[in-house]
Write a structure and sequence with these properties.
43% helix, 8 helices, alpha/beta, 263 residues
């Protein structure tokens, strides 16, 4: 659940912005349908590597269709890892998948009931969490641990909801237990949306009561949004305390965001 907030995202107005937005939305919709066709008809005939290549390509192209530029800095470690990222937009998963297509995200269970979208999300081997059930986190931690032991990359948003891009929310530590239990490194990732001369895009705001439609329209009309993905050095988890680990990861991501905004 996102935090309560009244104003909707601010985006350019006028005929030029409207035409730009309509053109980008049309391209994004066609690309979304193309992805659905690939998932339904092509994925069954592809091996895991080929599927991940398609996920990378589709995710990166979606940003181009929306008139956005993606910049990735840093490198993901090879092998099993738990990715921990700050959460700003519904586009965050695509931003990570464009750089690390093997990532299996932990998502809210409601996504399984979203028409069409559920097929795209499911194709990325998503793990689902029922947030309204307090004990479900334990089940998900076990599933995450099994995936990590199998050599997979799992990704989580420990804030549990979207922030405004200016400040991080507290990090929940529960899901980090999967990495600690399996001795798997945790790799922090900072996400930032910049727009024009602003280090933090106002059009990317997805907090409070802003709907997906409002967010999509604001992003499509924006002039030049750059999505910054900063991959930080992996942290060891052997004998780690999950709360202290959560604080450490939050500090590292916050520091990276602060340095990025200062550039």
């Amino acid at each position: 659940m996102r935090r309560a907030k009244d104003p909707a995202p601010i985006a350019p107005t006028g005929p030029a912005a409207t035409l730009r937005g309509l053109w980008r939305l049309a391209r994004a919709a066609l690309h979304g349908l193309h992805g659905l066709v690939v998932v339904l008809l092509v994925f069954p005939h592809l091996n895991r590597t080929a599927r991940e290549q398609r996920i990378r390509w589709w995710s990166a192209k979606m940003f181009r269709m929306l008139g956005m530029r993606l910049e990735v800095n840093g490198a993901f470690r090879a092998g099993a890892k738990l990715l921990v990222a700050n959460h700003i937009s519904w586009l965050d998963i695509m931003a990570v998948h464009a750089a690390c297509p093997e990532a299996r995200f932990v998502s809210k269970a409601e996504v399984r009931h979203w028409p069409l979208v559920n097929r795209l999300v499911g194709a990325a081997r998503t793990l689902y969490l029922q947030r309204e059930r307090s004990r479900d986190a334990l089940r998900v931690v076990h599933e995450m641990a099994e995936a990590l032991r199998a050599g997979d990359t799992v990704a989580v948003f420990p804030e549990g909801t979207t922030g405004d891009g200016h400040a991080l929310l507290p990090f929940h530590a529960n899901l980090l237990q999967a990495a600690i239990a399996t001795g798997t490194p945790v790799q922090p990732v900072s996400l930032r949306y910049a727009e024009g001369g602003d280090a933090v895009s106002r059009a990317a705001d997805f907090t409070g009561d802003i709907t997906l439609g409002q967010s999509l329209w604001a992003l499509a009309r924006a002039r030049a949004i750059v999505v910054h993905v900063q991959v930080l050095t992996a942290e060891g988890t052997l004998h780690a305390d999950r709360r202290r680990l959560a604080e450490r990861l939050r500090f590292l991501i916050e520091e990276a965001l602060r340095d990025g905004r200062a550039v």
